[in-house]
Amino acid sequence: MHIVLVHGLWLRVSVWDEVLALLIASDYMPITAVPLPADASSASPTTLEDQLDAVLAAIDSQPEPAVVVGHSAAATLAWMAADRRPDRVAQTVLIGGFPQSGGEQYAPFFPIVNGAMPFPGWEAFEGPDSEDLTGAQCQEIASAAIPVPEAVARSTVTYTSEARFDVPTALLCPEYSPEQARKWIAADDVPELSRTKHVSYADLDSGHWPMLTRPAQLAAAIADFAE
Hints:
By secondary structure, this protein is an alpha/beta fold. The protein is built from nine helices and eight strands. The chain is 33% helix and 16% strand.
């Protein structure tokens, strides 16, 4: 399988560096970490479709079927990729996030300032999300954070194919447990996954950014699902 890694809000593609190195060291190839465009300052700011196009280009770059790994809000990007390429995506792996429903905004979580959604600070993530991060890691994330263009964050999510519900999905559960995720899906709190035919679960025992705090565990979980 071709592993495609898609990072979440505010992050840079380098957030995958350690996971990528561990997968390569274990002789797992091919792997693509997708650098999502995120230009909020130009006359034509980045849109959600631009980010989706970057993910689809990564999927199409290799002949092997893709395992698309989406972190946090990018669970929706991974799910949209499965919707657009149900014949090319063998599985989605969703880390700490769930796909938005069609008609919802992609990431309506924090205020827009000057055409973008800036990193809101650590108060918004107090508790299980961030308790395993070191002070240096918190500073690294905040200082490197890229504001999310409004045309990404407030874009309406659209799906085109019922075949996405046939794509197997794995939930890697960091700041919540697999049991909690099962309950949310059973209660139809996550309509997209409530209709998905094959959903599996794994516990990561980490906060919201396991690629920084549990890279070896995360790399092993991704490889297990890809195999």
